[in-house]
Amino acid sequence: MLLVLKIILVIVLIGFAVVVIGVWWFINRVKTALKEALSGANLAPPCRITLQPESHPEWRNAEKMKQYSDDFTANGFTSLGAFQVPEVSGLKIEAFVNEAESLFGVTYDHEKIPTSFNVVCRYEDGSDLTVTDLNEPATLDRPPNSPIIRLAGIDVKGAVDAAAKHPATAPRLPAKAADFVSRFELAFAQEADWRMRRGGPTREEVRRRAELGGKTISEEKLYEAHASIRSAWMMQLQVTNVNQYKIDQNIAQAEWKKMEYRVFAIPMVLTEKEVYEQLEANLGLEEKQMVELRKIKLAPGQTALDLINEVLAGKAGQLPMKRLGSVKEPVPAEILLSEVTEDDSDDDSDESEEEAQHKA
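The chain above was modelled as a monomer; its predicted structure follows.
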């Protein structure tokens, strides 16, 4: 079990080791220290991030960050200032732009990973390129047309030259100082969406990371590690789906407070078993209801959305929920409202107490 937990922690850290900007920047969150990670908490990165300017950043590796800053400036880049990323605990960045070359640069300072930098360009056809001075082996798959060139110990000029030599299929998209924050956040979201549409890290990604350095992992341990990681990613996905619905519908905070505890999401990428589990947990279903629910099976090519539509059509009887709407991001999902009332919950609690007293 300890091996599995270590693998889980490494997967959480893996995105920071790569430190990519957008469809360029994919940053996995390390939200807690080892103790929490081993307890099974916070194993998934955020699906969305926000950059907040930081006027007086306190760098953990001030000497290295200044070295990077001087190097960028000497190579025609202008500093855009420092930012913190609230969703990624312990991470601060400094951004740079070279508008003449249509390049962004970002330096990363984090409490648990090596300080590093990226030089990034995006092309008019939607593809992009990242050059980084980190030499982390490629254990994570990359989105299509979004390569990373890893050159350990390279300086900014070397990174700029490497980007220039990379074969491009279209001209570079202009890099403007005013666009940095929005493009950073959007690009992060696009890559997060791509990973979530795959259902989070694949078994092979987990295996590659676990076996890095010549280690081996049994199929049993691989199954346990992947299951734990996927569960955390799917929970993060559902939270983001629900938040996206609130944003799309522009629901007032006061109105949202009255209903938020009863709102849940069924994303397209959930398995049949995961849909059953979500409905049972959110609706407090009895065993008889679960038996009827499990009779609904997904045919080849169908998704969790097909299953939930059959449930809403009454194929499992009248379950205490209704459809609020749907969202497209990060993954298409149905947004549902539990119609289980507080009285129902109280009744369940009373019955449980009576059963306990009877048994006593």
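Residues 4-42, 345-360 have pLDDT under 50 and may be disordered.
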